[in-house]
Specification:
Chains A, B: Keywords: NADP, Oxidoreductase, Pantothenate biosynthesis. Chains A, B: It catalyses: (R)-pantoate + NADP(+) = 2-dehydropantoate + NADPH + H(+). Chains A, B: This is 2-dehydropantoate 2-reductase. Chains A, B: It comes from Priestia filamentosa. The structure is a homodimer. Chain A is of the alpha/beta class. Chain A has two domains: about 170 residues, Rossmann fold, CATH 3.40.50; about 120 residues, Orthogonal Bundle (N-(1-d-carboxylethyl)-l-norvaline Dehydrogenase, domain 2), CATH 1.10.1040. Chain A has eleven helices and twelve strands. In chain A, the strands form two sheets. Chain A has an eight-stranded mixed beta sheet with strand order 5-2-1-6-7-8-11-12. Chain A has a four-stranded mixed beta sheet with strand order 4-3-10-9, with helices on one face. The first copy, chain A, starts with a strand and ends with a helix. In chain A, about 45% of the residues are buried. The model of chain A has no long low-confidence stretch (mean pLDDT about 95). The interface between A and B is medium-sized, with 23 and 23 residues.
Chain lengths: ~290, ~290
């Protein structure tokens, strides 16, 4: 049985460590000893229609041992710096599943020969330190950033309840998710609405479209219309979900706005393109973070 | 004692009919017979530090008699069409104190020879059909749109507790108020914050500034810096107030966004100037209206 490390005990960490422990020898690394102890005793509870309980190994990240065949890093982008010493030192293949593009900047600093990227299409909401609500079923798309695809093969043959799908072009894959995040997250956070409202409300839909035009100016998307269709489909499939950015504002005030919109603003500055809407949205979310914190 | 009509029983109607009945023979015209009866029995209650009670005459607008020396029209811009038959027919001098610039379009249709404009700097919140909370003390600025200034003279000598001040240039006067309304109202409504937060939060302040630049492109303000300073002063003086647009969204869903931002968007279209932020804000507030209604 292959050894797999899952780093981070947030909603995605619990979800991945839980499901993957059915087939792998999983060790979940949590930020705190308290969370590790709680999961040792009570297991990970994944709540969907029914409740599933999993018992992977679990340790605090402070006692990290570099021994898994693959490590999945589930922390949010703004949390990565706290575990950089561990990431820099490890030789294990690493799979990063952060939103946005900001984490790409640090990949060059890693010694690991095999580095993979993934995008997550699941809806997940952490209810407490050992419970996660699997709110929306989706796929995990994975791609090679550097190294050998073979290290991903056992994930790719994993069961259909929690599927992994291979993508050839990591940049296309990340950009596709980035556009969804830019169009859905800040607007739902600003208007405090579920994803589906963006489709149903013609004024909000109009703003989503205006935002896409600005994003396209900067990122030069290959096919704007099919990109927009894809965003609308995601909104429809997740219509009752509250986006992670809306949840983050309501819970703790820190969002992924820098990884998502911040990245496009940097690109725009580099290319000397004006982005009034993206700048306005960025400042709006940063301002609301400040207000809610 | 001069006869004065106050048309409309909203927060401003109650405030003006109340205070002015100390010196004038005021008749307040309300939308409903119920409100007229309630005020006949209980009077108008103006709540400031202490409560003041006034007993002007009061009638439902359906029994309007064209007899006052001056009529002050206190309805919101989007309510004016409902009383256009009365306004069109009257020969009395009329004073309009609506926000925005949209009501200017209908002034040409009036037969009255003396038409005046005003802007209100009071904070007022209607608590029930006969009670208004006078939340912020300010002035009423008045100017001549057409006709003779003399019809305003007794207002201009009115007491210092509720002062009227004459302005030579009605357009400057309205534009000054318009800019304040554009910068403060939609942003406070969007972020759901009191006016003062726009000053304290550097991100919101940045967006207010970006918005001013767009407004200036369209309206060609004479002095942008002093305009901005003026807006900041108003924000400071009314820091604990919730703007009328925020209140409107929270109460009934209809706002003055058309009279305020809609006017600038029409001007921009006429002048072929792009206004991404104003368009985004307009659609945001229209979308939120739809959501809250």
């Amino acid at each position: 049985m292959e050894k797999l490390d899952v780093i981070g005990g947030g909603s995605l960490g619990l979800l991945y460590a839980g499901y993957l422990s059915e087939q792998w020898d999983v060790t979940l690394y949590t930020k705190t000893e308290e969370q590790a102890n709680a999961i040792k005793q009570k297991g990970i509870l994944v709540y969907k229609e029914a409740s599933l309980r999993f018992f992977p190994k679990v340790k605090p990240i402070s006692s990290y041992v570099d021994k898994g065949h693959l490590a999945i890093v589930t922390l949010k982008e703004y949390q990565l710096s706290s575990i950089m010493p561990i990431l820099k030192a490890t030789c294990r293949p690493l799979l990063f599943i952060q939103n946005g593009m900001n984490h790409l900047k640090m990949l060059d600093k890693l010694t690991a020969e095999n580095v993979f990227l993934g995008v997550v299409e699941h809806g997940a909401l952490r209810l407490n330190e050992n419970t996660v609500h699997h709110k929306g079923e989706g796929k995990t798309k994975v791609s090679v950033w550097r190294g050998e695809k073979t290290f991903l093969s056992s994930l790719l043959t994993y069961n259909k309840q929690f599927p992994f799908v291979y993508e050839d072009d990591w940049k296309e894959m990340l950009l596709g998710k980035l556009v969804i995040n830019i169009l859905v997250n800040p607007l739902t956070a600003l208007y405090k609405v579920e994803n589906g409202v963006l489709l149903e409300n013609p004024y909000f839909l109009q703003n989503m479209r205006a935002l896409l035009n600005e994003v396209h100016n900067v990122l030069e998307l290959k096919d704007v219309e099919s990109t927009f269709k894809n965003v609308l489909t995601i909104c429809k499939n997740t219509k009752d979900n509250r986006s992670s950015m809306l949840q983050d504002l309501q819970n703790k005030g820190i969002t992924e706005i820098d990884a998502i919109v911040g990245y496009v603003l940097e690109e725009a500055e580099r290319k000397k393109i004006e982005t009034p809407l993206l700048s306005f949205l960025y400042a709006s979310i940063k301002g609301l973070e400040k207000g809610e914190s």
